[in-house]
Amino acid sequence: MGIPKYAQGADYSRLVRVLCKKKCMSITYAEMIQPHPGWNVLKESDVFKYQAKCLKCGGIAEDPYNWMSP
Predict the structure, then answer these.
(1) String of DSSP letters for 8-51
(2) What domain range includes position 20?
(3) Which of 23, 25, 38, 52 lies in disulfide reach of 30, CB 3.0 to 4.6 Å?
C-alpha cells in the first residue's frame, strides 16, 4: 500500500497518519507543522505541543498520542 495521491507532495520526514476530527472524520495522512521529534517523544507529549495539518481537509490535529507512522 503506497501513499495516496493527496499526500504524495508532503515532506515524508513530517508525514503521519491521524484520526482527522475535523471534516474527514477518518484516518488520513497529515504533515507535521514542526519537525518530527521521534515517535517516543510524540507518544509522551502533551496535547497542543505538536500539530499536524490534514492533507485532505486542512484541519489541524493536536493530539499526537494517537498518531501513526505512514
Answers:
(1) TTS-GGGEEEEEETTTT-EEEEEEESS----HHHHHHSPTTSS-
(2) 5-66
(3) 52
Indicate left, alpha or beta for 67 from its phi (over 0: left) and psi (-120 to 50: alpha).
Answer: beta
Which residues are CB-contacts of 35 (< 8 A; sequence separation ≥ 6)?
13, 14
Asked whether 49 and 61 are in contact (CB, 8 A), the reply is no
Residue type, 25: M
Find all residues with CB under 8 Å of 70, minimum gap 6, and list them. Answer: 3, 7, 12, 15, 16, 17, 29
For the entire predicted model, the pTM comes to 0.90
